[in-house]
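Thread: Newbie trying to understand structure tokens

Hi all, I'm a second-year student working on a class project, and my supervisor (Dr. K.) asked me to get a predicted structure for one chain before our next meeting. I've only ever worked with sequences, so writing a 3D structure as a token string is new to me. If someone could post the tokens and maybe explain what I'm looking at, I'd be very grateful. Here's the chain:
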Amino acid sequence: MRDQRLKDIVPFVVSVESGSFTAAAERLYLTSSAVSKSVARLEDRLGSRLLERTTRTLKLTDAGKAYYQTCLRIMDELAEAEAILKAQRTIPSGRLRLAVPSTYGRLGVMPLLIPFCQQHPDVELSVTFSDRFIDLFDEGIDVAVRIGGPADLPASLGSRQMGRERMVFCATPEYLDRTGRPTSESELLQHRAILYERADGSTKPWLFTTADGHPHWRTVPYCMALGDVDAQVQALCAGLGVAQMPSWLIREPLSRGMLEIILPEQQPDGLPLSVVWPRRKQLLPKVDSLLAALSALEIAC
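---
Reply by user tm_fold:
Sure, no problem. This is what the structure looks like when written as tokens:
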């Protein structure tokens, strides 16, 4: 029965595309009668009329339109499955679409993409830098790097968690020399705070860890609220105040002594970093090679 269903789908789709049973028969190297009988057999099995026949043309019914779209999807998936199996014997090549967060993509992902492209010159890599949530299927993305996002993913997506952000309080040594180095949460809250401003106008609170290891959030007054993390780093390095930042974002100014960590015992976990991809594409050499390259991602330091 399954074999017959697949056999009848192709004459139906080709008939719709060709506009007549005669034209479909020529494309399929069958007789017009055989194509017509195949479509009729399909309609009988479904109990619905799929095509309105006239002397010259074929027209889809409402049921036929819905079924036609389903058939196209099935045929596309079969073609993709065959391409994947065939591709297992080839080198990585073709267009590859990657989506990454804006700042982390630049600082954390790009250093891995450069050697990847050098190693696989036949891959045409297209990278989208965006902090919005991207639907991989709607936007045709092969692999996405995400910070945060939904915890529950559909079965059609594969994922690999790469770690979690480590959140640290920091300021410039000059600012701390001028205002004093806080040694407690209460002292820290007396300092000038540089906060992240969300799209809705609210500010992101500071995250602390209690003595028994539980996280708790504190809404704090601020001297500056910025809707861009790179701008936060600039304000910090200018000595305008104190901020809580993911450690990966301030790795360079920390290593150069431009920033100093405050309350080193307060370094709670932030958002998770993960790599996500459509499972059906994992066997493609270009996708598999990119996933291997991204396995070196890190988000804490």
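A couple of things are worth pointing out once you decode it. The radius of gyration is 28 Å. The chain has ten helices and 13 strands. Feel free to ask follow-ups in this thread.
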